[in-house]
Amino acid sequence: MPVSPFRERITTEQELRDLMGVPGELVAKKAIDHLDSHCREFIGRSPFLLVATADATGACDVSPRGDAAGFVHIVDDRHLVVPERPGNRRMDSLRNILSNPRAGLIFLIPAMEETLRVNGRAWILRDPELLREMEVKGKIPKVGIGVEVEECYLHCAKSLKRSRLWQPDTWPDPADLPSASRILADHVNLPDVSPEKVEESLRESYTQRLY
After folding, report:
1. Which of 43, 44, 178, 191 is the most buried (most CB within 10 A)?
2. pLDDT average, residue stretch 124-129
């Protein structure tokens, strides 16, 4: 077995606090347990979020979700639903929720550097009345991720400021970006799967099967 390069490990919270310090009063008190008017507006303006889940063994996954701003349905001040649009059928998030019904969400709004974090209990829903609220182009999602909010708070802008994520002048030339079709073909590593075939499949999926 190869030797791990991670040698100087922190193993207790006290060690961590001694090194990194403790949060200030504003940070310590900023979390609320419901979706107030500010959170509702933020979610209503967000076209993109990240869903973090883990299975019963603790194996983690983070999956993106995106649609037109306001696509996440707010039921009331303690409950929201993320529609499950057609994907690749791996269903990592959904399978995790079946064995460990918890989820962490991060909502983003383009050009805004603060993000909104929501944590709570999670379920897979197939309630037709709720799912009908998220119909797009005549397509009602078959299921959704329901979250009962336990913790909600605004996350500071430092990571997005450091990354300059929303500053177009820092964006790379699209021609210099990695090729998704090449990456997938190499990872699949099957004799009859070429980058060209993957590119054709991706194009068909993106144009015909978004909903």
Report:
1. 43
2. 96
